[in-house]
UniProtKB/TrEMBL annotation:
Self-association state and partner proteins as the record states: Homodimer.
Name by which UniProt lists this protein: Bifunctional protein FolD
Swiss-Prot/TrEMBL GO biological process terms: L-histidine biosynthetic process; methionine biosynthetic process; purine nucleotide biosynthetic process; tetrahydrofolate interconversion
GO cellular component: cytosol
The organism of origin for this protein: Fructilactobacillus cliffordii
Pfam families the record matches: THF_DHG_CYH, THF_DHG_CYH_C
E.C. numbers: 1.5.1.5, 3.5.4.9
Keyword Hydrolase: yes
Keyword Hydrolase among UniProt keywords: yes
One GO MF term attached to the UniProt entry: methenyltetrahydrofolate cyclohydrolase activity
Keywords: Amino-acid biosynthesis, Histidine biosynthesis, Hydrolase, Methionine biosynthesis, Multifunctional enzyme, NADP, One-carbon metabolism, Oxidoreductase, Purine biosynthesis
């Protein structure tokens, strides 16, 4: 039987710890505050943002949603971020990606106070991660959530051959940096990579952040491979699926994160965890 790596269970453990920390902070008169900035009406984004709001409420985190019109000017958006930078109730700011095409995402992210950049996307925080500087500083939530999930399930990273498929700034690059910092041997594959199979056949851990249903299946891996599926795709039937297909009795996959119920819940739990940590760092 395939071993499922249960993201909901690990997320619940993280969330319980977060809830306790929120309680302790409240006794000292501190309430962690998260601002989510959402531009336009992307359906998936609206859904994710609702899930984040709901989880924040459950844990006792103060959260505000800045819902902005699709055609907002860049100047107006930067001004809103600047107000949040100076708002003492807010210690964590997240600008939901993707932004409409007329907005320069790089410029928008660089406007967030690095000390409030809960996504870890600001160049200063990216630089610290790449330099493997000692913390604390925020790190991208999905990559950090994956590291927590590996640790929680006692999947060794040090010395492991890890194949990271995808080189995005949100997942592939920061996750490769975290793995490298922990002593893994990391290959970052992408759409221009030749001979993908050669890399997959030597991997102990494969992480797929491609965003295509049926991108990989059991036959692509070597025996005893651990698979982390970061994909969130709708298949032909409108079902939420990851990048990787697998049977109930795989030959090669030893363990895999299901979609839903794998990496997704860890992203949100890590966002909440980091929001609370950041309110502590500011003391
Ligand atoms: N600035 C920014 N930060 C982000 O962290 C960010 C973003 N932009 N843009 C979009 C992606 C995507 N993302 C997800 C979070 C949770 C689930 C999640 O909880 N998924 C559930 C299923 C959700 C469902 O039912 O649709 C699961 O896999 O079990 C998925 C995707 C965060 N993102």
């Amino acid at each position: 039987m395939v071993q499922l790596i249960d993201g909901r269970k690990a997320a619940q453990t993280v969330n319980e710890a977060t809830k306790q920390r929120v309680k302790l902070l409240k006794q000292r008169g501190i309430i962690p505050g998260l601002a989510v900035v959402l531009v336009g009406h992307n359906q998936a984004s609206e859904r994710y943002v609702r899930m984040k709001e709901k989880q924040a409420q459950k844990l006792g985190i103060y959260s505000v949603l800045k819902q902005l019109p699709e055609d907002i000017s860049e100047v107006a958006l930067l001004e809103i971020i600047s107000v949040l930078n100076h708002d003492d109730r807010i210690n964590a700011i997240l600008v939901q990606s993707p932004l409409p095409a007329h907005l320069d995402e790089t410029k928008v992210i660089a406007t967030i106070d690095p000390n409030k950049d809960v996504d870890g996307f600001h160049p200063v925080n990216v630089g610290k991660l790449y330099l493997n500087l000692p913390g604390p500083y925020p790190v991208a939530c999905t990559p950090r959530g994956v590291m927590t999930l590996l640790e929680f399930n006692q999947i060794p990273v040090k010395g492991a051959n890890v194949v990271m498929i995808g080189k995005s700034s949100i997942v592939g690059k920061p996750l490769a940096a975290l793995l490298l910092n922990e002593g893994a041997t990391v290959s970052v594959l992408h759409s221009q990579t030749r001979d993908r199979q050669d890399f997959l056949k030597t991997a102990d851990i494969v992480i797929s952040a491609v965003g295509k249903a049926h991108f990989l299946n059991d036959a692509d891996f070597q025996p005893q491979t651990t698979v982390i599926d970061v994909g969130q795709n709708l298949d032909e039937n409108g079902q939420l699926v990851g990048d990787v297909d697998y049977p109930t009795e795989p030959t090669n996959i030893r363990s895999i994160t299901p979609v839903p119920g794998g990496v997704g819940p860890m992203t949100i739990a890590t966002l909440m965890q980091q929001t609370v940590e950041m309110s502590e760092w500011g003391l």
